[in-house]
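User: quick one - fold this with 6-O-phosphoryl inosine monophosphate bound?
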Amino acid sequence: MNADNRTEQHTAVVGLQWGDEGKGKVVDLLTARHDVIVRYNGGANAGHTVMVGEERYALHLIPSGILYSDKVCVIANGVVVDPQVLIEEIDSLRARGVEVADNLRISDRAHVVMPYHKEHDAALESVLSNRVGGESEDLSIGTTRRGIGPAYADKVHRSTAIRMGDLLDVNRLHRHLRVICAIRSAELAALGVTAPPLDPDDLASRYSALGQRLATHITDTVYLLHDYLSEGRSILFEGANACLLDIDHGTYPYVTSSNCSTLGIPAGTGLPGSWIRRVVGTMKAYSTRVGAGPFPTEQDNETGLRIRDRGNEYGTTTGRPRRCGWLDLVAVRYSAMICGVTGLACMLLDVLSGFDELRLCTHYRRADGSVTDRFVPDAEGLSRMTPVYETLPGWSQEIDDASDRSALPANARRYLDRIEEVVGVPVEIVSVGPERTQTLVEV
Ligand code: GDP
Ligand code: IMO
Ligand code: MG
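Assistant: Sure. Structure tokens for the protein plus 6-O-phosphoryl inosine monophosphate:
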């Protein structure tokens, strides 16, 4: 296929806030129109919920497209894979009648999350939150403790990394783990972990067994994806985490450890970004955040509690209550710019029913009183910004059974219109409930 044939058939779904925008639901919706669904970043820190009738699926590593038996799902090289979690996920899907066989392909170059990564993640978070050395500041990130940061750190360290393909050669794995275990045991002890030193024999045998269980899925996904492109198959990229958690473009250091904006797609899959013409930026009709870090529109009050209650805002992966607040359009406009968003999916609009008034943040006020419409992708700088709000009238009726956008109350339509105006991108999908049917699609 030459460059002129690059149609809009390949689509990326990406979160524009701090995660949990409803990407799983949007991917599920768009899967019907694509052949191959690809995860390109993150790991088991993600929790993507898909509702199929009464059935609720929470996916962490496997692309949400797995619920369609005729699609291929790919865990590409940019993902960090916890083989234990992956096997549990495969087993639990199979137990519910979902086919997981040749339809799941895993990159031999995806890096492995080992048990010591999770221990390191948890130990470092504890040290940082325990105000080490008499410091009064809590410096923890509020990670999911899934070992994501330490696994990506090993990827960058190179010499201490393990990739999925390495699990298939037990002798090499064993040799490698002898050195790694010595280094990691010393590091864990320095972080205050009192467990016995890591045992390379035990780890090598357990992780090579996990590798054997996954062996038929492990392959070179870069050539595989290019072969799919040559065959004219359409690809759907499933972003995990979200743009404001991007390691380079998010609210650093309160971010995750991968490029979770669409900028992570080329490196995380081996496919040039020029293939992707359609980017669905997924956003909530309000804002949430899990873990630490600045959140200018946070409502640590009755409003926030009401949003949490109506939106059932508790983490899919960790169960932590999510921090809730008004919609921050400065942030969404920034993410749409970074991700090259061509259309918005505005999720959980139903949660806002019943408010007399709704507030939309369109600008930030700096400490010197000046106003800007630019986001500040740095935690320290963002924490000094005060939101400038517009107030729009709310709507009283429930909207969860609306069948199309024109059936929404006038004030709900006005709210969506204002989002489009400020972000400068059309709203293509409106979601008014978790079910597949509770979706108003414009295009
Ligand atoms: P993801 O990480 O972006 O895939 O999002 P999560 O699955 O972590 O969180 C989104 C939550 O909102 C899930 O529990 C979904 O079932 C739910 N959800 C998605 N869309 C809607 C909606 O329009 N209305 C309501 N009330 N819930 C929704
Ligand atoms: P999905 O794909 C919400 C947040 C964590 C923490 C920070 C770093 O479901 O939208 P990490 O464990 O990645 O080192 O934690 O990033 N975080 C998420 N928050 N949804 C996610 O994924 C997240 N993935 C990471 O809460 O603040
Ligand atoms: Mg989630």
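One thing worth noting: The chain has twelve helices and 20 strands.
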